[in-house]
Amino acid sequence: MRGLTYLLRGAAVSILAISVGGGCAKPPPLSQIEQTTIARGCVFSACHSGTSAAAGLDLKSGAFEHLVNAKSMQVPSKMRVVPGDPDASYLIEKLTAVKPTVGQRMPPMSDPIPDEELEAIRDWIAGGALNN
Fold first, then answer.
1. Which pLDDT belongs to residue 23?
2. Rounded Cα–Cα distance for residues 91 and 28 (Å)
3. How far apart are CA 16 and CA 73, in angstroms?
4. Does residue 107 have a cis peptide bond before it, meaning omega lies within 30 degrees of 0?
5. Integer distance in angstroms from the first to the last C-alpha of the chain?
6. Own/partner pairs, 70-78, CB within 8 angstroms, 24+ separation
7. Greatest Cα pair distance in the chain
8. Which residue, 117, 116, 115, 93, is CA-closest to 105?
9. Cβ-based neighbours of 121, under 8 Å, separated by 6 or more
10. Rounded distance between C-alpha atoms, residue 3 and residue 72, angstroms
11. How far apart are CA 66 and CA 60, in angstroms?
12. Residue 40 burial (C-beta neighbours within 10 Å; 0-12, 13-18, 19+)
């Protein structure tokens, strides 16, 4: 009987750990997001690279410095990326909202970024938006 009690307690602890995020995958590193999404859709198009980068957001010379805890030039009351809080991050609004606070959804005149790439960005932000 005692063995069954320990087994049930262990199962309950495992279920609880999974339900509160203990079983979640590790967020992707920024370097992966830079290679898959930023390089292809933001920098390659020349929208967010160089001295004339749109909204002053040059992602070619270091995405982390220009995104994390950086005020948006379009909406200075909003931070581009708020570590740990994707829904408070202006970047997520610009990538998902049909009509963002200012301007248009990114990338402009194109299909939205694929769901799996958007989810990777959300996971990176939720995981603390690390410079990795």
1. 52
2. 17
3. 42
4. yes
5. 49
6. 74/101, 74/102, 74/103, 75/101, 75/102
7. 72
8. 93
9. 33, 37, 86, 91, 92, 95
10. 57
11. 10
12. middle
Q: Residue 65 is encoded by which pair of tokens?
A: 């410095």
Higher pLDDT, 66 or 4: 66
Cβ-based neighbours of 131, under 8 Å, separated by 6 or more: 30, 64, 68
Residue 109's pLDDT band (cuts 50, 70, 90): confident
pLDDT tens string 3-59: 433 333 433 333 333 334 445 689 999 999 999 999 888 877 678 888 888 888 888
Distance CA 79, CA 75 (A): 8
Q: Which two tokens stand for residue 43?
A: 């920098």
